[in-house]
Amino acid sequence: MNEVQRFFIEETRLGIPVDFSNEGLRGVAFSIATSFPSELSQGHTWDRELIREIGRITAKEARALGYTNIYAPTLDVARDQRWGRIEDVYGEDPYLASQLGVEMAKGLQEHYTVASTAKHFAVYSNSKGAREGQSRTDPQTSPREVENVFLPPFKAAIKEAGILGMMSSYNDYDSIPVTGSSYWLTDRLRKDFGFKGYVVSDSAAVEFLYNKHGVAADMKDAVRQSIDAGLNVKTNFTPPDDFILPLRELVKEGKVSMKTLDDRVRDVLRVKFLVGIFDRPYVSDADATERLVNSAEHQQVALRAARESVVLLKNERSVLPLSREIKSVAVIGPNADNDSNTQYRYGPSSIKGVTVMEGIKNKLGGKVSVRYAKGCEILDAHWPETEVLAEPLTKEEQEEIDKAVDVAKNSDVAIVVLGDSSKTVGESASRTSLDLPGRQLNLVQAVYGTGKPVVVVLINGRPLSINWVNKYVPAIVEAWFPGAQGGTAIADVLFGDYNPGGKLTVTFPRTVGQIPYNFPTKPNAQWEGENTRVNGALYYFGHGLSYTTFEYSNLQINPRKQTSRGSVLVSLEVRNTGARAGDEVVQLYTRDVVSSVTTYEKNLRGFERVHLNPGEAKSIKFTLTPDDLALWDRNMHFIVEPGVFRVMVGAGSEDIRLNGEFEIVGSRDRDR
Hints:
Immunoglobulin-like
């Protein structure tokens, strides 16, 4: 990398150093770097300080390796669980994505270690039918939902974190491709939000203006449209005659003005100066880089993230945590001894992860017999066709399941580790079903049939419709893609050395037939009364259990009446009423009771993850600002309307413990 940099500094006319960019959703996308959980996993921690630290570490390792611009965080908001890239977002709620995205950007850009480039601007995550690949067009969403759901995380990252990079998305909105739109890249991004960095295209977004969207006659016309719209850099790895040479011709022909070109270059140079590329263009100490990257200290933060992201979905009869007095344990399933989900194209690619099998063995040592059987692959031979045309088990598949049954029969408890792989979720890996892929349901049913206690652990990238598992298996642990330290974290949870405290940032539908089914939602839009359809979610937004219990009390709202320009303070007390120390994620929701337009049933407007010892209580305080109460009215003005607002505080969106109200009085406050 130093040699490439030296060429640009010493062998080119202007000697301007290169801004080396790389991905960083789970740590730096290098062969070896600290491996963090997926961004969806990180979202389930609800831990602002932790996300800031992940950003800091990613930035330090990136700069030590020679990178000065990191493509993270993903600020898209998931609305369809079938979507392949749901694993790359914080969740389905815009407030949560805004809060955590700001922390990640601040961590990355602390002391201008690197520039943070957010993606994918704008309205990227709601393509028709959740399709990926060559689709990623025609977002299925209204203008008001764009403002309420899809734009707030980008606005927050710009205004609160001063983010220096933005990736323009592949898609159109209302038939106008974003990468060729001055409305999106200039009017909204720079004028409305105040963006001062530079915009890069998502890979072939420029080419798509003519070869997918059909709004440009050829590549040269696509270059003109994108540059005029506000694009600074094309990121696709193609020869100069795809972009640079056509741009030169356009300038000579007067079709792109020198002022426009100067403006686009100025944005890039500003970022390069801010992150100190002109002062420190080279990696100066390779030995120091080797000591820093994936250090033991950084791995401890990754372990903390893996632990905090675990969600206890179900725990009937307190099956968990498991006793270490058991004599034998069966560890079964396609993800039980598999670390392939640790390697990732947008994170470390050659890191060795701790599997669940290894984590349990390390935890129990030689005192407990740990037996393993894979049972089945993630997929069957004819998947995904078998999702619509079922096939009987083959002889080979039945034999593998029988081996797992034998292992379970000869053990005191069976831990069945199921879920996804890179073949079932990720970029260009959307699905038409949310059921466990392949023969995994057959496997867990057979193991359950032995009569031995069963615990299911999910390692996956999207919510799964685990209806049978939820009905029959007493304990279910959701671990998402937990990174290289995942096996250790999961073993800590299973055997009680860590009390899980993660909460869901996505809804688990019972079937794809309920989609769209998400949070937040409009009044009665997800009404559960028809006797002709399956009703209710498996697990709702904000859900997550613990090995202890928490009591909420003493809700205070001050003042009870406030003007549209004032803030409202909300406080309460949370107490650990159980016998174990644990984390609770306190969640605050609001409801505009009467408004000029339909608003959401619940708006997440505050959260705090708090650690409490047995018997310990803490006071939790939230501040509701005018922006937290504003809406887009019938004339698309962002205002605070007078009226009553309901406050709901609890342990989940469907587990509200405290209720209260306050009133906004006086005139409407227009265009915040």
